[in-house]
Amino acid sequence: MADTQTTKAWRKTERERLIDARMAAAPAMRRIWSEAIATRLRDVLAAETGILGVYWPFRAEFDPRPLIDWAIATGRGIALPVVVDKKGPLEYRAWKPGEPLVDGVWNIPVPEKREVVLPAAVLAPVVGFDRQCYRLGYGGGYFDRTLAALSPRPRAIGVGFELQAIDTIHPQEFDIPMSLIVTEAATHRR
After folding, report:
1. Cβ contacts of residue 20 below 8 Å, gap of 6+?
2. Rounded to a whole number, what is the largest CA-CA distance in the chain?
3. What are phi and psi of 71, to 5 degrees?
4. Is the whole model's pTM more than 0.90, yes or no?
């Protein structure tokens, strides 16, 4: 798709379709898929060190909260992303279960305490993804701006369900591919 406006409109329609498909999947099936994703993520992250950037689940996404407990048990620090500027990158704040959370953008819980950290790896929820490990998100550009701004750049791991795979997201110049995408069925590598 050469035309930017055509691509933008296609992405908007595709996002809606993919979110609807994810939300239509039975909760019991999403739990089974999530357990398989968590197993794959533990394998991928087992040799990693440093802070792990996670996210709070939203709109039937993979729920990484059980993975947080595993990461803490293995001695990893955890950070949650916070929108501090709607046109800027995300800020990752250190967090442990039990520490206070407050409502952030879209009422997604974020750490109340502002202890900004640089994750070694980040999990990024996908709305859609393609064979080249490009991630289609919600359209705000937060993860792409964040990855572009962080130095050193953390390892970016897209997380979603296999039903979110598409042929291409029609990557734009601002899209940053994930190092890999983890689903219940596979670990897709770039």
Report:
1. none
2. 49
3. -60, -40
4. yes
3-state secondary structure the chain: CCCHHHHHHHHHHHHHHHHHHHHHCCHHHHHHHHHHHHHHHHHHHCCCCCCEECCCCCCCCCCCHHHHHHHHHCCCCEEEEEECCCCCCEEEEECCCCCCEEECHHHCEEECCCCECCCCEEEEECCEECCCCCEECCCCCHHHHHHHHCCCCCEEEEECCHHHECCCCCCCCCCCCCCEEECCCCEEEC
pLDDT tens digits, 134-186: 999 998 899 999 999 999 999 999 999 999 999 999 999 999 999 999 999 99
Q: How far apart are CA 145 and CA 173, in angstroms?
A: 12
Spatial distance between the Cα atoms of 25 and 13, rounded to a whole number of angstroms? 19
Domains assigned to the chain: 4-189 (3.40.50.10420)
